[in-house]
């Protein structure tokens, strides 16, 4: 007979008003802040602050103890901050040894590995140290001061009476060594710094000094240049690249020849480096790193750098030699100082020579007297100069004629804005191009009639004109739209523009010609430079400079095109905001068109079937960067309007299901599936005659998209050609990728995914159909580009639990164990239809719900099982004959219990059992479970599908009655909350604060008080999806449906709905468990059919919630 005493029954509490009890409050500090649990009565222990090491100042003295028995101290850090007690007070001798190591480290204290730390040694009494006075500082017997930081300190510097005794008389300190020189050294256990070469900074050309530039005595010789480069690499501790050395060589050229143009200097530097590279002296390694071959001595001469710097002296503003490469171009102010005769030849913009005159007519030269190639070259250069003069003249005329609008009475709305965007920008263009025009004319005056080159002038101009042209390109389209709109609306403006158009300076040219004169000029530069480059010898320095000029002009043109494209997208979005009309409130959505980040990616006409599948509807599809809008085109009062009849699809909820379906033939109102191209076949009863079937003309190519939200639907959009369908597919995929990349870059995703396993496959026929994959989403970033490993099982994953670094997975036919993604999984328990598993490590217990039976196992035996073991871990059944549909582990009144639900006829039986500990323990001193003892049972009408335990009570999830409050004292389930909300099946309830709980249903959630009352002024938050399960990881609520996971931020005490902050899409998504806040999911692989992924939802502690995202209002 078992004489063990049964535990006392749970005492019944007196009747009182029921409520959800709170957990014991955390202790509070005096300032009101709560301490963390498990940190002790005084809260978490403060972390000591690390004090950075301090170098000893030069000349700082040491303090010597008065006693002759000196025992050096051993410390962890070789440097300590100097804290004098009085003015001029030095520090102890033991600190002097620690603070002042010698360069050769021959006299430092060394310690063997078994030497005790400083915390284990005794230090001398601070009172035993004497303090030096000012008279003793100059004493010859004192310790000599250090001349520099690198100076060392040894016993040779000490008086004889202070030299330590031999080793056998010293204290017995393990690891203490005395060298033959008399120096005591103990090695300090400190981390070693990485080598300096690994953390060297990149070479900065701007830090080259005059002394370093003067080291190159022969810059005209490649051998001298090579020696100088070798000197820089050896003398400067930095990372050198081929680009930085080229820039340094260009700086050397300018330093040696100050009058040279920097563009020419850069071209000479590139020419010299190319010659050195061809001879093998220098090469570019990985990441453009410089690699030198010191055994080679390159040869060659830079003829441009030979001599004293010029062909003739410079008494005037310009050089007497027109072909001098070291002469800078004439500036505009220098042009004004030229004699009148020269200025009349140069200032063609003032109307003296004819701008349409060619080069030969301009200079009075017969074309037959000049070589054909040279003639074409001069024609091209002359055309560039003359068109530049005409370009500046036209801009000046435009500002002079139409610029009076700035001072004219208002004839248009936003007149000041228009003048600022147009005339102010054009004046900046005139300023920079006048400089180029003057320089070109100056070069023409210096070297004419045969101009040697203009590439350096163009390169220098591009560097100066970039800001002005980019600013003009940013405002050009907005000014054009404003001018067109106001011209159509304001008769006064039209009359004023017509009056200005009759000005004789315009010579009959309309306003639009001058208004759009700037941006086409950039394209003209490219053509003109190409013509000059075509007839320039490739061996000349000018050819390389022209290539650089053409490259710079292309870069500036691309920048302006990007600015115009950005402005065009903004204008398109503004036009949409004025022309979009929603059919009703049911299809209304905040498209956030006022956000400057909005982009209209693609728009066009696609066909779709009507509601009754008997007619065709032409949909005008608008693909924004945040929404996809299906609309119909209508004529409105302000022109064309877009009538939105379907709910716009947010980019987070848009799924491209397929884009490769077979084409369908349109015959009136019927669709016929096309089975390829018709084949011509001979008819029966004829002499081989062939009947040709006419190929259908109206073939449509479907594009299947889905709004995966609860209020969405599935749409088939038909394109007229397969190429058009491919363009729409690429546009949608790119839009989704850009949307995900933008959210990742802004760090606005509260959760990331971590791959745990990809080694489980679906049973044949159970795998879901995959959508078109979209790169760079949360799921794709999780799996990367790796292919799935070899599958270990074909079964549906139902539950996953973690035990340290091990994982236990519950499948349809067993429990598998593994260590994550890269380890092999194997079966440890052979069971059928494993629904759920739970681990209780403190009791060495594993609970498994398999095939409606609740089993418990010894956790250690399961974890120690090996593949192929014959000794299978044995489990015991917790329930008898009745089926178990749900179980959970809880701590009721500080006692570990297991709560499980059985079905009996029309009622559910809720049983509470407690594990009984065994007298034996595991090797880790963990108690084992011998059996289970029934604590209580409660009969509840209806179908109980879940239980949420609290400290003294629990919440029952009843499929017919919603949430019900249950106390084991009263054993009467009461509705919680009392109102019927109509939100579907109850899923879970969580505590979000001391006085608030969130009740989650299939269709939404709401905040309630611990007494079951709905919080005042708190609306119901509807879910985007139909949730099948929920989880809570403070402060985020995660709702899981088969196609999406929506994350909402729960904030107690607010009167607003819980905002939607993240959406994760996929196929066949299932919640596997939420133990201790660790959320795990199973879903289909997005790229490989038939593969299941097990992922963990990992919180992002640095998240920045984006309140302007497309899902913020859902």
From TrEMBL:
Region (Disordered), start-end ranges: 1-141
Compositional bias (Basic and acidic residues): 101-114
Domain CNH: 794-1079
Domain (PH): residue spans on this chain: 599-737
InterPro entries: CNH_dom, DBL_dom_sf, DH_dom, PH-like_dom_sf, PH_5, PH_domain, RGF3_WH, Rho-type_GEFs
Protein name as annotated: Rho1 guanine nucleotide exchange factor 3
Pfam families hit by this protein: CNH, PH_5, RhoGEF, WHD_RGF3
Composition skew (Basic residues), residue ranges: 47-56
GO molecular function: guanyl-nucleotide exchange factor activity
Domain DH per the UniProt entry, residue ranges: 376-563
UniProt entry tagged with the keyword Acyltransferase: no
This protein's UniProt keywords: Guanine-nucleotide releasing factor, Phosphoprotein
Domain of life assignment: Eukaryota
